[in-house]
Automatic annotation (TrEMBL), chains A, B:
A molecular-function term among this protein's GO annotations: DNA binding
Stated name of the protein: DNA-binding GntR family transcriptional regulator
Signal peptide start-end: none
UniProt keyword annotation of 4Fe-4S present: no
Ranges in a coiled coil: none
All residue ranges annotated as the HTH gntR-type domain in the record: 5-72
Gene3D superfamilies: GntR ligand-binding domain-like, Winged helix-like DNA-binding domain superfamily/Winged helix DNA-binding domain
Highest taxon in the source lineage: Bacteria
PROSITE patterns: HTH_GNTR (PS50949)
Organism: Aquabacter spiritensis
Keyword vocabulary terms for this entry: DNA-binding, Transcription, Transcription regulation
Length: 232, 232
DNA sequence: TCGGGCTAAATCGTATACAATTTGATCAGA
DNA sequence: TCTGATCAAATTGTATACGATTTAGCCCGA
């Protein structure tokens, strides 16, 4: 029998990927027994993995009711994106004008991977695009920022899958290139502006659309009843 | 037998308090059995509590070696304080000029509790002072910011206990008052300045002193050997 | 037909048993 | 005396058993 938390990590990683790739959709129940059987592990181990995921709010655990894939509300989504805006600003402020050639190369490679996947129609381009922001955080050398960014990026992906439209991410390759250029020549004001609008385009517009759709949806749903009340 | 995670929460809260009040000092081993016996719970429950504490980095869990009270390095301390500076700036930027009278009153009450405890020499004044920053975060209405601030404040307390000198916190009452005043009249530039220097005084100077002490300590430790090398 | 209570199935929360690992002490040999 | 191997004690990692809780289906009486 293997020891250590290797198995916990494996299950954690597996579930996390499945959630972020939308194989497990928000709201899906995650019973400990079923998952344990799948992975060939006991509930003890599965539970620990689920608790880790709950720690980054990718799954919801409600006492005595089990775990489900998290289904953030629009309010939670707005809160998340708003905080992410600020944290990304923290990151670029720390990096602006301080990028080494090696780091610039690393970023360019990341963008190229994203571009290639996007051109070839592979869905990993989403993961690569998200990783770009994580790599930026890593370059600050601040473990805490990395930790936060990892959570923020993961949860953002979940939310985009829930509310977003894929087309919003199309422009991100060029925007990522512009960000790197700006980081290199140290134009902080322009950099902040670019990052803000980049995130606005990718994140906020998606959920704003969702919010409008939802409002309209409620109106439509209620319309027949209003009609009935008027005539009845 | 009670159900739910109530018992986990109780143990979590108990351990957390003990750590933050420095009853359990950094490095102290936290064996699951011993704690379980103390609280009258099984290892299962204790383990969960320890994992929660590890989640906010108040305890260290190393595979097969058990949990100890976290003992952050000076580098980790610097990283934490640096990020905390930025997050606190996020908070005041969101609150500046937007404080309701009720909120101002709440803050004043918090400061008074701190002042009273300080005047009477009760050690809770430290907890009250830390809570002030948490209350500010709560007033932003952003659950995420509250979450982050809670972690940051908790870990800051741990670090101050490890490296800090108590006298640095003396001036915080007046500084907290100034912050509230500034939040009310909406002078953002001055507010940012105040908060920066407030945190600098409370946090950074403490560990800078510790760093100098440590450096000097190494010099002292090495001195005899240098002497020996010179004569040998 | 419909709502309220009852029961059974599913699933979680906790305790406990046992295996695996670490750690420190002991002891033999150089 | 010192070094390294070996073994026992302490402690963690995982599996599993069992009680507790939720949930949903079912039946029955109105």
């Amino acid at each position: 029998m293997k020891q250590r938390g290797e198995r916990v990590d494996a299950i954690y990683a597996g579930l996390r990927l499945a959630i972020l790739e939308q194989v497990l959709q928000p709201g899906t129940k995650l019973p400990e027994d079923a998952i344990g059987e799948q992975f060939g592990a006991s509930r003890t181990v599965v539970r620990r993995a689920l608790e880790l995921l709950a720690g980054e709010e990718l799954v919801d655990i409600r006492p005595n009711r089990g775990a489900t894939v998290a289904k953030p509300s629009l309010d939670e989504a707005r809160d998340l994106f708003s905080v992410r805006q600020d944290v990304e600003q923290m990151v670029i402020r720390r990096l602006c004008g301080r990028l080494t050639p090696a780091q610039a190369k690393r970023l360019e490679a990341q963008i190229e991977a994203e571009e290639r996947a996007h051109r070839e129609g592979r869905p990993e381009y989403i993961r690569h695009a998200a990783e770009f922001h994580l790599v930026l955080a890593e370059m600050t050398g601040s473990p805490l920022l990395v930790r936060y960014m990892r959570q923020l990026v993961g949860r953002s992906a979940l939310i985009l899958g829930l509310y977003g439209r894929p087309r919003w991410t199309d422009c991100s390759v060029q925007e990522h290139r512009d960000l790197v250029t700006c980081l290199l020549n140290g134009d902080l004001a322009r950099l902040e502006h670019l990052m803000h609008h980049h995130l606005e385009a990718v994140l906020s517009r998606a959920i704003d659309t969702a919010a409008r759709d939802k409002e309209r949806g409620i109106r439509d749903l209620l319309a027949p009843y209003v009609e009935a009340a008027r005539s009845g």
